[in-house]
Amino acid sequence: MTIRIKRVYDDPAPDDGSRVLVDRLWPRGVSRERAELDDWIKDVAPSPDLRTWWNHDPDRIDEFAERYRTELGATPVTAAAVARLRSLVAANARTGTTTTLVYAARDPVVNHARILGEYLGAAHPESLPVGAPPTP
Amino acid sequence: MANDTIHEVPAQNGGMPNRLADAISPYLRSHAGNPVDWHGWGAEAFAEARARDLPVLVSIGYSTCHWCHVMARESFSDPVLADYLNEHFVSVKVDREEHPDVDAAYLAAASAFVGGLGWPLNVFVTPGGRAFYAGTYFPPQPMTGHPSFRQVLEAVTDAWTTRRAEVTESADLVAAALATAAAEATTAGARPDAVALNAAAAALVAQEDPVFGGFGGAPKFPVAPALGFLLERAKGRDLALRTLKRLGASPLRDPIEGGFFRYAVNRDWSEPHYERMLYDNAQLLDLYTQAWKLTGEPWARAVALGIARFLTGVLALPGGGLASAQDSESTVDGRRVEGGYYALDEEARKLQARPALDDKVLTGWNGLGIAALARAGFAFDEPALQAAAMRAADMLLDQHLADQRTGGVELVRASISGRVSGARSTLEDYGMFARGLLELALATGEVRYALAARRLVDATLPPAQTPPAQSPLPFRVPNGSDPVLAAQGLESAVDPSEGAYPSGLTSIAGAAWLLHLLTADPRYLAAAESGMDLLGGQLTSRPLAFGAALRLSAALAAPALQLVVVSPDGSPATSPDGLPAAARRRATGLVAAVTEAQAKAFSDAGFDLFRDRTTRAGLAVAYLCRDFVCSLPVTDPADLPPGVPGSTGRPTGTTMGA
Lengths: 136, 658
Description:
InterPro entries (chain A): YeaO-like
Number of helices of chain A: 5
Structural class of chain A: alpha/beta
CATH class of the domain at 19-185 in chain B: Alpha Beta
Shape of chain A: globular
Oligomer: heterodimer
Number of helices of chain B: 24
Helix content of chain A: 25-40%
Protein name (chain A): DUF488 family protein
Number of strands of chain B: 20
Strand content of chain A: 5-15%
Number of strands of chain A: 4
Organism (chain A): Cryobacterium mannosilyticum
CATH superfamily of the domain at 19-185 in chain B: Glutaredoxin
Distance between the termini of chain A: 32 Å
Strand order of the largest sheet of chain A: 1-4-2-3
Largest sheet of chain B: 4 strands, mixed
Strand content of chain B: 5-15%
CATH topology of the domain at 19-185 in chain B: Glutaredoxin
């Protein structure tokens, strides 16, 4: 499966494939037409509390990433949003279509869309025999 | 009674047990005293949820799962939490060993919502059976970033009440995606060729822990199927032998009772988790038996016979079957401790109660035990082990084979003390039991076991006249899949995943292949090959997760060696240097040692490998064939070509798991 990320302020391109906005708030100064989105899944974005704590500080990106990944499975609503996005990525992959996660943040590295893309694209770890206990 | 079942829990709801009091599963019965109004698996729970417009909590575990018990003690025994659960949910308890199909279906669905799942597996499900949220162990109080179980329940209730459309829409999308993926999984891929098999073996070699042995870091499992694949290959055998030797000397093995614990929490094997599983010990017995045949090393023999002692002395039940597992906790001097029993020496142990057994008899796992005991008994010339295998096989044939009067074949999945579970049997049960019966037939010369095995495999094959387009799968469960899952659209046609033991598909394909070697019927070979075709490239991209399928694929890619030794009727096979003795030690290919009368019985029953196999001038005769093309019969063991797998440059092997 192919997952890319792209700023909403960059021009859409045909090879973006299916464009999905993954921010909680609509990006400033962009019209619906210009954004050319196929979907907007706002509940996969970091919670307002987490976003405020992080404040896009590059020095805290690792801790942000860890907290963000935990958040993605932490409530039924975020989990449902993740599942919806996963289904979309899988459906696109079957037709050879790229999924592009669209975001507004300035930095192409220091942003949640990159972490989300890695989370969705991560291969399932080599599975060991069943029953490894969860770590409480 | 305290020792009879796992964790007998006193009733916490005023002495009134819930619906689980009469369950077949000891794990379910251990929740019978909970104030939670548990349902067992079935349509009733979902009907109630529909009527009350509530979500269903499907809570899945098994008796030797440590954190399952912790959660039962901390949360499911709490009357306040139980009140909340009873008001806002319909709760279902499932033993994943009794219902592996339910577990697999919900685990697959739940994984789309939440990563990193394991057991206990708590899945939140719509009344229509669509999973929409899940988790594993939840603490009773919030812990560093982890919500408490109560908080999770409240969040689910909130989502169910205020955001239901979003939640159910995602659940429907996931269900549709899974159905599509299941359909694609039945599209034939390509079996790995010699190059791909070598690459898979090389990938496994690269994953070896060079310091402490085994694969990967922590937690560390023996991964018997992968070791079985490597043991049969020239490049890989050293690794497998090295690993087996190290495991046998490690704390993962209990040297007193001989059984292996399930896994170690750390890389150097020094801290085991103390539960002992039938499937691990059965597979390891077979590996150590094969290691002994290959090397003649005393350590391999000692470890093998120790495991056999554990199977026959600890897991064997008075009624004839083998128990599923033994618990990690036990009561030592009045205190419940994890692993405490195993810290005692032999004398001190005799004064304490043994850790409890999960004494439900599972058909498939018993099949693994029967195969291993039969083969070990044959190799080591220990009739007691073969007798133990026969007791288990006879018990299953008597009590787990239902509906014989209608001429149909229907296996029971599980029973306890003669009471039968309503859980549907799976391909695993048909495959592993049929394989066990075939190995027992070869080890004892008793054709009745081979006949029973053939009936089981035949029952899983589609009728001969079915056009392939209508039946893309080479095997099916004769009595259909679980009706509740089927009504929910969750019956997965093929679950190729392989955990600590072979998948249902690999098990039944392996049994069909062995049946082909005995009958020369091409239908069995074709079914086995199509079964492995379905797995395609997954085998070589994730070799650690597909050891048994790799082993069978390697066997299918190589010429099959078949050795039949026929002895005169009534002649004891005691001579240590005679042909029967050579057959016992032979490490390569299919091996059968039969009397002349037994050979005729096999031949008359349609097992063509035995046709016209007779003695000569009162002497035992060995018939060695390669893909049914046979060399001239020999009467002197010195004239038998050496039987070391890989010596032809090509892998062979008909040992269990292939």
